[in-house]
Amino acid sequence: MIARIAILFVLLAVVTASKPYKGYKVYEVQQKTRDQAEFLHHLEQSNENLDFWHLSKHLDNNAQVMVPPHEQRSFVAGLMRNGFQFNVLIDDIENTNDEYEALAPRKPTSAEDSILHNYLRHSDINQYLDGLAERYSPKISVEQIGTSHEGRPLKTITINADSQNPIIFLDAGIHAREWIAPATALYAINQLVEHATENADVLSNITWVILPVVNPDGYEYSHEHDRFWRKTRKPAGKCIGTDGNRNFDFHWGEIGASSNACSDTYRGDAAFSEPETQAIRDVLLKFKNRCKFYLSLHSYGKYLLYPWGWTSDLPETWQTIDEVAQAGANAINEATGTKYTVGSSTNVLYAASGGSDDWALDVADVPITIVMELPSGGFGGFNPPAQAIEESVKESWIGIKAMALKVSQMLNTID
Q: Per residue in 349-399, pLDDT tens?
């Protein structure tokens, strides 16, 4: 246990962030009964000061919560009153800086090496995309599909461009602090472009369109100011930012989405209030009837989730979507032993309306829509240290490729 906590210290350091996290603790809480699970869910919904990093409906699936100093006494008292077993995973987040810096990323020797061992900044990511387009044109192209609130270009890369091909659309980084998601998208791009021969089976009859960073303003803010920033950066009343994955216009604002602008799950003042979600909306509507698979990368938890997020009911086509998700989970498990949980978002986690996958399935008519919650590097946090990126993205690519191959095989039967 001591070794695991030491690794967590390294993992969750506030690298260059200026927001102080002195005294913030991360607790791991065991939920053994349905009443305990509901108690934690109520806390997550009612107390904006508690940052639930992981919370599942499944009993014996431990919750992980970051708690500020002024909430710790009452938080612990509530756990004890309700018979929880718990422990402190991180005693003081701010004190993890030294341990993290001791594992500084190595100097890359190539673009691929950089992807595997560093969290690239947004400008570097776009530079990489533009370079690929220059080298591999006309099969590879880059398009600006929108602009963030602070003026950063939202760029997609199109791989195996062919106006007749069905499309897989992959995005990542809608939540700023989930750095491993853009890293995984970049590795997918690298594999599809610079290792096309080895991945010909998912390129022969498919065009890929990939947006590696949906929320560049928040992503940059999480690098420079607040390591745990989640939302966009457009002002919202007295607070800043909207949860992009609560901002889509399908059952918007109904459940699991806050109307409090200061909340991490703030839904926005209207559906599609954010330029970043508007960009995804517009590109998916542009590809309506051509896009067959929408995959959104998040972290963390090792889940493959599908609609619906707003209700425990399942879409009529859930079995087809489940077949694709199971293909990804099985491929990862066979290759590495890592086990993914597969199911609908509400039934595996909790209800949350306004999600991109629900909207893509119902409004944009994408027949297969899945959210992939990536691993935490085995340690229990949003991002592995830079030294663990390679293992994480390579494992995740196994699942992504397996799902893409399954979709490719099903093209004649899905619509």
A: 889 999 999 999 999 999 999 999 998 865 557 767 888 899 999 999 999
pTM over 0.90: yes
The total of other beta-carbon atoms located within 10 Å of residue 195's CB is: 11
Encode pLDDT of 77-127 as tens digits: 999 999 999 999 888 887 764 455 455 556 667 888 899 999 999 999 999
For 239, the token pair is: 């607070």
Its CATH class, for the domain covering 2-102, is: alpha beta
Q: Which of 143, 373, 390, 391 is catalytic?
A: 373
Facing residues of 30 across strands?
A: 85
Q: What is the residue extent of each domain of the chain?
A: 2-102, 111-409
Number of other residues whose CB lies within 10 A of the CB of residue 335: 13
Strand partners, 180: none
Helices (H) and strands (E) in the chain, counts: 13, 14
**187 vs 36: CA distance, rounded Å:** 39
Q: What CATH homologous superfamily does 111-409 map to?
A: Zn peptidases (3.40.630.10)
Segments in 337-388 forming alpha helices (H): 345-348, 356-362
Look up 373 and say whether it is catalytic: yes
